[in-house]
Fold these 2 entries.
Entry 1:
Amino acid sequence: MKIHNFNAGPSILPREAIENAAKAVLDLNGMGMSLLEISHRTKDFEAVNDEANALLRELLNVPENYKILFLGGGASTQFFTVPYNLLEKKAGYVNTGVWSKKAIKEAKNFGETVVLASSEDKNFTYIPKGFEIPADLDYLHITSNNTIYGTEFFEDLDSPVPVVADMSSDILSRPIDVSKYGIIYGGAQKNMGPAGVTFVIIREDLVGKVSRALPSMVDYKNHIANDSMFNTPPVFPIFVLKEVLKWVKAQGGVKEMEKRAKEKAEMLYAEIDRNPMFVGTAVKEDRSRMNICFVMTPEYEALAPEFLEFAKSRGMVGVKGHRLVGGFRASCYNALPKESVQALIDCMQEFEKIHVK
Ligand SMILES: *Cc1c(COP(=O)(O)O)cnc(C)c1O
């Protein structure tokens, strides 16, 4: 049976990237050694690191005055690394869900942290808009896509202070204006690669300003000065990430990813809106293209477990919703083909035929 992989993260990757990674694990560049057995200081790995860097720079049109880092620790490590490096007096955060809250909690350890806007009043079903951004903040932090609640910022904010964005789950799904951000970071394991590598795109002038002493490993300056090789970088995940970026480029780049993401999301949301058994959880204008959250309508609520079983029997994987939202979540990352979305839609329609008289 064909598997349709809607996992939220780690999640589906382009088959080509996985195949090329498998080959490199057996023998890298005909060296007679595995990618897993070589020093990160060798030419062969430096070439991998450089290519990953150059590809990401090209795909996102990253300006010269920004550095790209590939680090360990996950997005969660950036939750404290950002305030460690940037928070002197006051930071502003927008609270749009679980990941934002975790970032806020960490920032509070370093200085005054104000929540400028929040959608917690409605269980994070929308993106707050029109909030004031005070000019005296060290930075403003947002979560551009809320993986758990299925809401997304579709515009790069205009801000008088540097914007720091956790883009773990929507990076590479639409063109962005990097120059409108101070830092963009995320775990690669949603839309850019396997688990184990974190990307950080950082405006160089932001580092080395804070007055507190920094442990070497959290100081961006050290990672920048050593091209992500201050310590041993996650060699294998960076290789796979590089292969994913090659694939994105070959498909037509981020604009093409956006086109496909729109297409897939429109198809699935149209079915959610049409089918009397299902209802979306996020307000329409803020609906994420990456993580599509929906539940059973109250009338059919009792059938939710049965629908999950039904979908599973037809090859759908990972459509169970996060426990905080319930229902279903279909993550439609770049590597997920349109055919998988259609297969899920077919499932919903068959289920409707059985249950709606
Ligand atoms: C998954 C996720 C995280 C957590 O990433 P880790 O790499 O596991 O630390 C943080 N933010 C967002 C938006 C996520 O989707």
Note: The chain has a mean pLDDT of 97.
Entry 2:
Amino acid sequence: MACECDMSNSSRHTGERRTLIVGLVCLDIINVLDNYPLEDTDTRVQDQLWERGGNAANTSVVLAQLGVKTEFIGTLADSTLSRLMVEDFHKYGVLIDHCIYHNNCKPPMSCIIVNSSSGTRTILHSNRSLPEVMYEDFELLNLNNYTWIHFEGRNVEEVLKMSERVVMHNGQFIESHDRIQISLELEKPGLKPSFCKLLPKADVVFLSKDVAKESGFQNGEECVLKFSKDVKPGAVVVCAWGELGAWAVGPNGEVVHSPAFPPAKIEDTVGAGDTFNAGVIYALSRGSSILEAIMQGCKIAGDKIGHQGFKIDAGTVTT
Ligand SMILES: Nc1ncnc2c1ncn2[C@@H]1O[C@H](COP(=O)(O)OP(=O)(O)OP(=O)(O)O)[C@@H](O)[C@H]1O
Ligand SMILES: *[C@@H]1O[C@H](CO)[C@@H](O)[C@H](O)[C@H]1NC(C)=O
Ligand SMILES: *[C@@H]1O[C@H](CO)[C@@H](O)[C@H](O)[C@H]1NC(C)=O
Ligand SMILES: *[C@@H]1O[C@H](CO)[C@@H](O)[C@H](O)[C@H]1NC(C)=O
Ligand SMILES: *[C@@H]1O[C@H](CO)[C@@H](O)[C@H](O)[C@H]1NC(C)=O
């Protein structure tokens, strides 16, 4: 696995290679209630937060908090609402120099209802017009600047072209540490079968419980074993399964499992999966074993769900 060099040094002078996250940033309006509202009632909520959200954006912010030099690329609407997201990236030191601004668009938004009694989250997502990141946008990046590229598997055709460009780029190197590691998150159901073409491009594939179930798999072990037939030889396949923790399989075909590390009280599971992915990428990029990496992911995710919002506790980082 490629190593993040100079991890201890948080200064980010240009030219240093970094981790790139490709995907969505959106605005989340989070309503915290201790009980689900009844239809056609007027309810006062415990709290209402406006936050920067989106899977790829969340993963970026967690990685940056772990001390990884991180860049995010995604689309932003040329709207005052986007300022909130831009400022949040700046706050965490995530580079966004290559983000694409679109005129006359409304940013995607999610309205989320968090049940603070049970910790569940119900998401209502809207996007009326903002285009996704396209291959033409990705083509402008100088790949020499990156050690690891993580794709949120959304617009599969474009992500396929992007990942093929990275595979081509890697072809010129003999030493594995010169090559860019590719990871891919497949979280939303409904992308099958088109995402199958993406699977052989990645070194690490994250499948969600929803995608596993859509494919007819009953548990994380079955999911990683079956999908390991579709990835490239030697790739790592990971599947997180809420309170049951996570499963993974790597080059030797052995399935490993990490339990979840639940906090004393679950406050907010919003973004647990994104936090888990960041923990796994962090650990693998530092040369941890697959088991250590998914344990790291579960520990950070467990810490996150004990808090409202997205601050991770530095004490959780063990590797
Ligand atoms: N209820 C829970 N109890 C303990 N750990 C949990 C719980 N939910 C999530 N986790 C931790 O978070 C990791 C990721 O979980 P999972 O992928 O199911 O999250 P998710 O709900 O899909 O998150 P997201 O909101 O990002 O979509 C799990 O492997 C586990 O370690
Ligand atoms: C990317 O790398 C090139 C040299 O390889 C450098 O000139 C450029 O400044 C880097 N880009 C960024 C945004 O750091
Ligand atoms: C919210 O949590 C409480 C306590 O667990 C539960 O009684 C209630 O049914 C939950 N509501 C929903 C819709 O999840
Ligand atoms: C948003 O919706 C538009 C119009 O349906 C679609 O073309 C675009 O891909 C979507 N973008 C995102 C970021 O989901
Ligand atoms: C990302 O994290 C934010 C909190 O910073 C949260 O509001 C949001 O829902 C998360 N988004 C997703 C898609 O998980």
Note: The chain has one domain: 2-36+45-316.
